[in-house]
Amino acid sequence: MLDLHDISRSQTITPAQLKAIAGAGARADLVAAIVRGWPTAVVKAALTTRLRAAHFLAQIMTETGGLQILEESGAYRAARILEIFGVGHHSAAVTEAEARRIAALPVAQRGPVLFNRVYGVGNPRKMREFNNTGPNDGWLYRGGGMMQTTGKSNYAARERKTGLPLVAHPELLHQPDPAFTAAYLEWAQDGRCNAAADRDDVVAVRKIINGGSNGLAECRVYLTRAKKALADYSVEPAVVVPAIIGDAGPAIVAPVGELEDPAPASSPPNVQPLDPDVRGDAVLYDVQRRLKARRYSPGLLDGRWGSGTSGALSGFMNDRGLALVLPSSVDEFHGIADQVRGELGKAETEIQPDGSIGWFRPVSAARAGADPKIVTQLAPEVVPARRNFLVALWSSIAAGAGAVWQTVSDSVTGAWDFFTDHRDVVDDHPGLVSTLWEHVSTLPSGVWLLLGAGGLAFIAYNSWRAIKTSTLAVTTGERQ
What is the C-alpha separation between 436 and 441, in angstroms, rounded? Predict the structure, then answer.
């Protein structure tokens, strides 16, 4: 029988403390995830002082809106879009006209359109910074988790830290336990956060986490609450481990840094296995595959529930007139799976007016014809991509022409000067070929121009591919 020696109460955090910091709207599942993961966070992120814990929680509260959200929705009004992503505020430099156009879209469309514009191919600077090179990467790798990890490259970094397949399954950061794990590992990654917290420098901490000062005012409020709620917080340098009753000798004391990680908390009921090679629910996978064939894109075909699958299923049910309640989990999905699969079967065998077999997502004539206004509205990243394509193409042509002219003119001039200066010795000059080669090898400007032309041509080709991919997604109805 074990006599469990209590770890000091000051080393734990309680739901009451978290709610006092977050406010009345805190989600119970997010509160529970932090309480479960706090002992590990203390060890991994060195949250050993009141200031460190308070600053850490203040950042989480700011990024999650007081423990209410785990992902950027993008459902912003025009004024908010301009405030965050507008000219002078963000490299995307969204114009007022763009912001109004995006804000006028239905909520389900607004997020993908906005984030592909500001984080993805619609913003070449962020596309390169985040490695968001896919046509929908801006949306897939939008801000997620308790520290709002943003961009494919940062999801990959969190994957290396946590061991979770976040690149293949970015929706994992939208789940409480993985989100908290990623948050404290991000805080601990280079020691800068704790150093700034030790100085009680909320501006510096905010810049490290956010990259700027967005949300600084809210963060100050949460920090004040956190300091008050954690007034008695401290962590001892050692933790007493369980001792067996009747065992002679004292209980064992281990330094905090040498403790083994506690067993992970049980996963929420609808979290699928994390092995990316293992598909989740077989029935859901079948529906995802068939929805995609009908041009309702669920994102990654993996048999796991996520926002992509929810959006695709919602669109299909609306277009087919299925009066069913949209599920929010795999378990709820199984309650309507038979009706959905039955309707998919009808869609797959339905004879169309032109005699073809198979019903596909309906699109307007303007959309099917790639009307520029429709494409621009639903895929605004096409506008800067088209601009990049034209600039890169013409620059490549100009650089190539310049390289040819530079190479030819210098060669002709050099050869003419050589022959003019050596008329009397041309016939018996022993190093004629070598001398001519020396003239050719001293023409670096042409070579550099050709390399520049090749690089610009590559940029133009990638921009053209992005335009074609986005346009195709719009014309087929996959992009809403």
Answer: 9
Give percent above pLDDT 90 in the chain.
26
The tokens describing 409, both together, are 């003119």
Q: What is the DSSP string of 384-436?
A: HHHHHHHHHHHHHHHHHHHHHHHHHHHHHHHHHHHHHHTTTTTTT-TTHHHHH
Measured distance CA(16)–CA(195) in Å, rounded: 28
Amino acid 408: pLDDT: 63
Percent of the chain with pLDDT over 70: 70
In the three-class reduction of DSSP (H, G, I as helix; E, B as strand; rest coil), residue 2 is classed as strand
* 375: pLDDT strictly greater than 60: no
CB atoms within 10 A of CB 191: 10
Closest C-alpha to 329, from 267, 381, 376: 267
The whole-number pLDDT of residue 431 equals 56
SS3 per residue for 103-166: HCCCHHHHHHHHHHHHCCCCCHHHHHHHCCCCCCHHHHCCCECCCCECCHHHHHHHHHHHCCCC
pTM: 0.50
**Range 227-238 average pLDDT:** 76
Pick the closest to residue 215 from 316, 105, 69 (CA basis). Answer: 69
CA atoms of 271 and 177, how far apart (whole Å): 10
- For range 144-163, the mean pLDDT: 89
Q: Are 341 and 357 in contact (CB under 8 A)?
A: no
User: CA-CA distance, 169 to 175, in Å (whole number)?
Assistant: 11
**DSSP code for 357:** B
**What is the average per-residue pLDDT within 393-403?**
74
Give pLDDT tens digits for 159-168: 888 788 899 9
Closest CA to 380 of 111, 200, 192, 162: 111
Question: Which tens digit of pLDDT belongs to each residue from 273-288?
Answer: 333 444 577 788 889 8
Q: How far is CA 475 from the centre of its chain?
A: 25
Handedness of CA 474, 477, 479, 480 (dihedral sign): positive
Lookup: tokens for 257: 């840094």
106: CB partners within 8 A, 6+ apart: 480
Neighbours of 73 (CB within 10 A): 14
Question: Which contacts (CB < 8 Å, 24+ apart) does range 414-423 have?
Answer: 414/439, 414/440, 414/442, 415/439
* Dist. CA 434–CA 197, nearest whole Å: 68
CA distance 473 to 477: 6
Q: Report DSSP letters for 26-59, one per residue.
A: --HHHHHHHHHHHHHHHHHHT--SHHHHHHHHHH
Tell me the pLDDT of the chain averaged across its residues. Answer: 76
pLDDT at 100: 92
What are the structural domain ranges in the chain? 282-362, 382-423+434-476
